[in-house]
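Methods — Computational structure assignment.
A single polypeptide chain was analysed. Its primary sequence is given first, followed by the predicted tertiary structure written as structure tokens.
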Amino acid sequence: MAKVIAIDRTEHHLRYVLAEIGPRSQVSILSADTLDIADDSQSVAAQLGKRLGKLLVEQKATKADLLIGVGRGALETVEFAVPAAEDSELPLMVRNLAMRHLSSINEETALDFLTSPARNDGSCDVIAMAVREDVRKELNRLTDAAETSASRMLVRPHELRAFVADAELQSQVVLVVCSSP
């Protein structure tokens, strides 16, 4: 059975869930934990990473897929126009323009972007997004301490509590994980 680790980072918490995906996509939770982020988020990330690494070894899940969730506040965004270009040229062009607008972006930074429909002249508007440098460093400390690396990153456009009634939040732990093959 495939094992998956989902890590969720908010401004105040780092949480993880280790699960096994069984037949008919049945999910079994193997372990879960939450650590509060105090002023020293460096030590929290390293502490959770060490716990997570130990757990992965104990659960024989060192090759599990790692999914990281971050809130929209963990992103830096910038909007700009790009001239007409082939689809294959667009990623490099967007990276170069984003690096001019956001000082924290470099050649190694994970960058994603959305384009608007092309204008008559072929140009279009682009919204480029990258994970803030402090968040990226924190997640790198976590994955380094756990001796693993992220398979995917998911940006949560809304707080999870928006999808659950208050009574449910008070009575049980709720986990929402979306993953496509």
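Note: The CA atoms of residues 84 and 122 lie 4 Å apart.
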